[in-house]
């Protein structure tokens, strides 16, 4: 199962990059969201949850600030928007798993 999570993560990253550069289809966001859910359930362990959530917060903050870059801002904004669409479902899953784990104690 962990291998499926790793493959989903790699496919999600590549698809987010390609969709930001070349492809402009609305269904890609749904595919990215589905891959993000798979990553959240299968790829992020309990030990990695804190660093994953912190890195995700940094990614989301960076995604909002790259719009101001001249010439490349539009392209990078599309790529970052796709990355956020991919990572956001995984963030939700990992955050909920962490909350339930904390509530158990």
Task: Give a verbal description of the structure.
This protein has about 100 residues and is mainly α. It has one domain (about 1-105). The protein is built from four helices and no strands. Helix 1 packs antiparallel against helix 4 (about 75-105) and helix 2 (about 25-40) runs parallel beside helix 4. The longest helix has about 30 residues, at about 75-105. The chain is globular, with a radius of gyration of 14 Å.
Count up the helices.
Answer: 4
Largest sheet features: none
- Work out the strand percent: under 5%
Number of strands: 0
Radius of gyration from the CA trace?
14 Å
Termini Cα gap: 27 Å
Mean pLDDT score, rounded? 88
Structural class: mainly alpha
Low confidence ranges: none
Shape: globular
Q: Give the % helix.
A: over 70%
N-to-C SSE string, H for helix and E for strand: HHHH
Number of domains: 1
What is this entry, summarized?
The chain is mostly helical and 105 residues long.
List the helices and strands and how they pair.
Layout: H1 2-21, H2 27-42, H3 49-65, H4 73-104
Task: List the keywords.
105 residues; mainly alpha; 4 helices; globular
């Amino acid at each position: 199962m962990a291998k499926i999570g790793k493959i989903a993560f790699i496919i999600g990253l590549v698809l987010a990059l390609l969709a930001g550069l070349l492809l402009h289809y609305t269904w890609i966001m749904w595919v990215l969201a589905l891959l993000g859910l798979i990553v959240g359930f299968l790829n992020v362990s309990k030990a990695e949850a804190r660093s994953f959530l912190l890195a995700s917060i940094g990614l989301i903050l960076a995604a909002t600030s790259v719009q101001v870059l001249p010439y490349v801002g539009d392209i990078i904004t599309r790529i970052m928007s796709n990355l956020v669409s991919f990572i956001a479902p995984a963030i939700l899953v990992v955050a909920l798993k962490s909350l339930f784990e904390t509530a158990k104690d």
